[in-house]
TrEMBL record:
It comes from Rhamnusium bicolor. This is Uncharacterized protein. Residues 36-46 have a biased composition (Polar residues). Residues 33-53 are annotated as: Disordered.
Amino acid sequence: MQANIDDEIQRSYRRLQKKLSLEFQEKLSEWERLKQNSPGTSNPSSACGFVEENRDPNFIKKMEEWQKNKEPATVGC
């Protein structure tokens, strides 16, 4: 019975991870599209106060981990 619960937890976790990854990609795409279509602003992120230096180090670490996990692992060169 515990194995069934663990399996269900793993399936739910994978579904959630996939869903969040897709939503995040959609938001990134939307932001890039808005950034490209925004006239008169050379750097929209600095206009709203969101610049690289102001990012939380934990956020940067999580973002790097997400980028690594997003890329498929290469096995056997």
